[in-house]
Amino acid sequence: MPELLNTRVEACYQQAEAFFKRSFPRPRVSLKLRGQKAGVAHLDENLLRFNLQLYRENSEDFLRQTVAHEVAHLIAHQLFGPRIKPHGEEWQLIMRGVYELPPNRCHNYAIKRRSVTRYLYRCQCQDFPFSAQRHALVGKGRRYYCRRCKATLVFTGQQSRE
């Protein structure tokens, strides 16, 4: 696990402890997050998960903003309980007051999207691209109908990559 990431998590906790004049239990940290999210805080498990790929590609902003963002979720949960909104005023207070960072809900890192297979279905009046999941449901007997002509949608045998 990258040491700078652990160092930043610890620094965020020390800042919060100095600000609130109390201690907080340290979370487990995992780098097994994939996809579009940069980080996730699992509140009841006291666990932080980070996206290693996005960390590598955006390390400076990731360390400054994303790590503080996720730590702030855990701190807010421990201070104010489970009924607060994820990006509500308590979380925003921690982002602004403790970390002096903007309380941005989302990152703007470039995401490499993987290609997706679409399965072409057809009725009497138009074509419908189905996801792999929906295509599999048809294979298990589910039927889909066109809202316009009311005909059953039928797989054409054609696929495309997006």
From TrEMBL:
<dbReference type="Pfam" id="PF10263">
    <property type="entry name" value="SprT-like"/>
</dbReference>
<dbReference type="InterPro" id="IPR006640">
    <property type="entry name" value="SprT-like_domain"/>
</dbReference>
<dbReference type="GO" id="GO:0006950">
    <property type="term" value="P:response to stress"/>
</dbReference>
<feature type="domain" description="SprT-like">
    <location>
        <begin position="7"/>
        <end position="156"/>
    </location>
</feature>
<dbReference type="Pfam" id="PF17283">
    <property type="entry name" value="Zn_ribbon_SprT"/>
</dbReference>
<protein>
    <submittedName>
        <fullName>SprT protein</fullName>
    </submittedName>
</protein>
<dbReference type="InterPro" id="IPR035240">
    <property type="entry name" value="SprT_Zn_ribbon"/>
</dbReference>
